[in-house]
């Protein structure tokens, strides 16, 4: 009987160790698989984030001096360069009149996206974009008569022209550039500046 009891205990220990080994190997393999998949997803997301939004223009070597005089920007509207020391409020602010460009460029330095439009933009598009801006911190919107496209989206060093608010690139631009990697002063205030 003792031998039978000892044999059972030995068999139970072997089964317990074998099951434990299978569980450990399964957990390790599952963990490796999940980490590998997560890393692949992160690499794909980083590659997508690094790619420009189709049709956007990029501007480099933009100065960041505070000035109290008008600035002749390389683009209309400006996407960076010297600017007023006071930023334009950009916490989802929608302006119905043109705003001072040097204040708006300061907002871009803080990570804002500036949506501008001409009288050629459809009223429905202007309304849709205004609603989107109101719901998105670090954005502002205003008319800008001197631009070449009906609707333009600007971030520090980046600009995109679109004809419609329904263009999927609008969402891509917001996602990529509101407080995006191009931001010279991430987290800087978008309130407490100029409001008109």
Give the topology, please.
Blueprint lengths: L1 H49 L6 E2 L32 E4 L6 H9 L3 E5 L5 H12 L4 E5 L7 E5 L2 E5 L5 H10 L19
Parallel strand pairs: 2-4, 3-4
Antiparallel strand pairs: 1-6, 3-5, 5-6
Note the main attributes of this structure.
196 residues; alpha/beta; 2 domains; six-stranded mixed beta sheet; 6 strands; DUF3105 domain-containing protein
Question: How many domains make up the 3D coordinates?
Answer: 2
Give unreliable regions as ranges: none
Number of helices: 4
Shape: elongated
Could you tell me the CATH topology label of the largest domain: Glutaredoxin
Indicate the structural class.
Answer: alpha/beta
CATH class group of the largest domain: Alpha Beta
Q: How would you sum up this structure, described in words?
A:
With 196 residues, the protein is of the alpha/beta class. It folds into 2 domains: 1-51; 57-177, Glutaredoxin. 41% of the residues lie in helices and 13% in strands. It is built from 4 helices and 6 strands. The protein has helices at residues 2-50, 101-109, 123-134, 168-177, and strands at residues 57-58, 91-94, 113-117, 139-143, 151-155, 158-162. The protein has a 6-stranded mixed beta sheet. The chain starts with a helix and ends in a 19-residue tail after the last helix. The mean pLDDT is 91.
């Amino acid at each position: 009987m003792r031998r039978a009891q000892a044999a059972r205990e030995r068999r139970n220990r072997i089964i317990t160790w074998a099951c434990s080994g299978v569980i450990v190997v399964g957990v390790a393999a599952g963990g490796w698989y999940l980490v590998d998949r997560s890393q692949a997803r992160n690499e794909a997301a980083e590659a997508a984030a690094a790619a420009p939004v189709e049709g956007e223009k990029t501007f480099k070597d933009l100065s960041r001096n505070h000035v109290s005089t008008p600035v002749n920007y390389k683009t209309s509207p400006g996407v960076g360069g010297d600017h007023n020391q006071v930023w334009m409020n950009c916490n989802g602010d929608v302006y119905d009149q043109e705003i001072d460009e040097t204040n708006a460029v300061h907002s871009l330095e803080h990570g804002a996206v500036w949506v501008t439009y001409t009288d050629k933009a459809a009223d429905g598009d202007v309304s849709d974009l205004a609603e989107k801006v109101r719901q998105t911190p670090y954005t502002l919107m205003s008319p800008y008569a001197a631009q070449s496209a009906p609707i333009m989206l600007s971030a520090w060093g980046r600009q995109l022209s679109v004809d419609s608010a329904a263009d999927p690139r609008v969402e891509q631009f917001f996602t990529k550039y509101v407080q995006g990697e191009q931001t010279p002063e991430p987290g800087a205030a978008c309130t407490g500046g100029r409001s008109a």
